[in-house]
């Protein structure tokens, strides 16, 4: 499992950079709320993450059901972290760090156990 996690982590590094750049742009240049910024940044990064992990990490065919399952869970996590950050006035950098750590760990297990799980016939 450690090799699998390392692959997931490497995709996550690129995914995180993409997410952070979009988030920062929207918060600091477009004056969007953290919740909205996090959701938009997530939407772009999650699509990259889904396809990269589908092909490189789990070596599974990407399907619409898998994509929707992955996006729904990760999107909920993304919005919830931004919403909570807005409620407690968390600085944007802490929102990013917290969400990135949570999405790495929770996303890996969710992907492995649910989204890309081997279906036995």
How are the elements arranged and paired?
Layout: H1 2-29, H2 34-57, H3 64-87, H4 92-115
Helix pairs in contact: 1-2, 1-4, 2-3, 3-4
Structural class: mainly alpha
Q: How many β-strand stretches?
A: 0
Number of helices: 4
Mean pLDDT: 90
Note poorly predicted spans. none
Order of helices and strands: HHHH
- Helicity level: over 70%
Radius of gyration: 14 Å
Strand content: under 5%
What can be said about the biggest beta sheet? none
Shape annotation: elongated
Tell me the domain tally: 1
**Amino- and carboxy-terminal Cα gap:** 23 Å
Question: Please, could you describe this protein's structure?
Answer:
The protein is mainly α and 121 residues long. The chain has one domain (2-115). Helices cover 83% and strands 0% of the residues. It has 4 helices and no strands. It has helices at residues 2-29, 34-57, 64-87, 92-115. The two termini are 23 Å apart.
Write a brief structural summary.
The protein has 121 residues and is mainly alpha-helical. It has one domain.
């Amino acid at each position: 499992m450690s090799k699998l996690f390392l692959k997931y982590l490497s995709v996550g590094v690129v995914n995180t950079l993409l997410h952070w750049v979009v988030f920062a742009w929207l918060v600091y240049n477009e004056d969007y709320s953290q919740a909205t910024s996090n959701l938009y940044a997530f939407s772009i990064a999650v699509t990259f993450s889904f396809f990269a992990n589908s092909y490189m990490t789990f070596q599974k065919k990407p399907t619409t059901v898998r994509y929707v399952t992955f996006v729904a869970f990760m999107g909920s996590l993304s919005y919830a972290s931004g919403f909570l950050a807005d409620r407690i006035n968390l600085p944007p950098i802490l929102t990013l760090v917290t969400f990135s750590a949570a999405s790495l760990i929770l996303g890996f297990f969710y992907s492995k156990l649910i989204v890309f799980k081997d279906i036995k016939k």
